[in-house]
Amino acid sequence: MVRTPEKIKEISDLNIASVIGLVAGLQRDSGDIPWHENGKTDPWDLVESVMGLNIGGYFRESGRAFDWLARNQNRDGSWFSSYMDGRPQDRTRETHMACYLAVGLFHTYLVTRDIEWLRTYWPCMEKGVEFALSLQTGTGEVYWAKSPQGKADPMSLLAGSSSIFMSLRCALAIGCILGKTRPRWQRSFELLERSIQENTHLYNVSKARYSMYWFYPVLCGAIRGDRARARMEKYWNKYVIEGQGCRCVSDQPWVTLAETSELVLALHAMGERKKAEIVFSWILDRVYEDKTFWCGYTYPDMVIWPEEKISWTNAVVAMAADALYGLTPACRLFRHEAWQGYVFRDSAN
């Protein structure tokens, strides 16, 4: 069943308080936001949770999360891939995790218009960007990580590099606001854009089973216009179960609400609002009694898996609702047309 846009907005409004309340409730005194109760933390998903907090107006909690990141940043600008109870768990240092702070920071600025956020966390963000770019190749791809032993892994991931593209875009926008020009970042950004558009054969094709490989180049804005529409249409049936949502991986009947919400963001980013609303309508009743969202479920047997209530899953559902219904001034963060001259407006399109 496809609900009307009015009904979708009514349901999403009702769920926002519960969704963001879950994220805030998982935050520890240190500012850390784990995946779930007694779960691990990773820097990328923590930033995703921050954007959810911003949508709910939990700015004090957002600041505490940024502070946690600043305190735990490695000297080279990276973070470890995961932490458990504040201690490093996996000491791999991933490039897309190192610079995603820029997206969360720019999102916070769009909502609050508080330039002090940018000034305070610029040094932390700058170091993260520099770490990521230190692993960029001459053809634009960015190697995905350094091992715990400090050795670069010469493999590039299309979804990871797409995330880095969005991070560089936000970092450059922040630099413009603060009057801190970074021509080398701009050159790296343009080189990465060409790579994503023209050199997909250089990325690890084994990751193509993940739906992020499909839509992340569109979500980040590296692929736009007719090319974006062609990419989305070509692989739609590979990753999407009609009436249900987006698979995490193409060869498993597992629909995940985070990937579905990110697909909504990608569709909205390229101007396909009506289609985005339809996809969003498919997941609105995939909730627990407290109106927080499942992580995922198998289809057609409809087994919820895993059963934990995930912080970043709920945060990105809120981000999808924001994009569609203009809940905050950051609703256009991923919208392709909004990046033409870095012009943002406070209403959704």
Describe the structure.
The chain is mostly helical. It has a single domain (5-339), classed as Glycosyltransferase (Alpha/alpha barrel), CATH 1.50.10. The chain has 13 helices and 9 strands. The strands form 4 sheets. Strands 3-4-5 form a 3-stranded antiparallel β-sheet. Strands 1-2 form a two-stranded antiparallel sheet. Residues 343-349 have low confidence and may be disordered.
Which structural class fits the helix and strand makeup? mainly alpha
Largest sheet: 3 strands, antiparallel
Rg (CA only): 19 Å
- CATH architectural category: Alpha/alpha barrel
Specify the overall morphology. Answer: globular
How many angstroms does the end-to-end distance come to? Answer: 24 Å
Tell me the quaternary state: single chain
CATH topology: Glycosyltransferase
The CATH C-level name is Mainly Alpha
* Strand residue content: 5-15%
| Helix count, DSSP H or I runs of 4 or more residues | 13
How is the secondary structure organized here?
Elements: H1 5-26, H2 43-55, H3 59-72, E1 82-84, E2 87-90, E3 93-94, H4 95-99, H5 101-112, H6 115-133, E4 143-146, E5 152-156, H7 158-178, H8 183-198, H9 211-219, H10 225-239, E6 240-241, E7 245-246, E8 254-256, H11 257-269, H12 273-283, E9 296-298, H13 311-325
Antiparallel strand pairs: 1-2, 3-4, 4-5, 6-7, 8-9
Helix pairs in contact: 1-2, 1-13, 2-3, 2-5, 2-13, 5-6, 5-7, 6-7, 7-8, 7-9, 9-10, 9-11, 11-12, 11-13
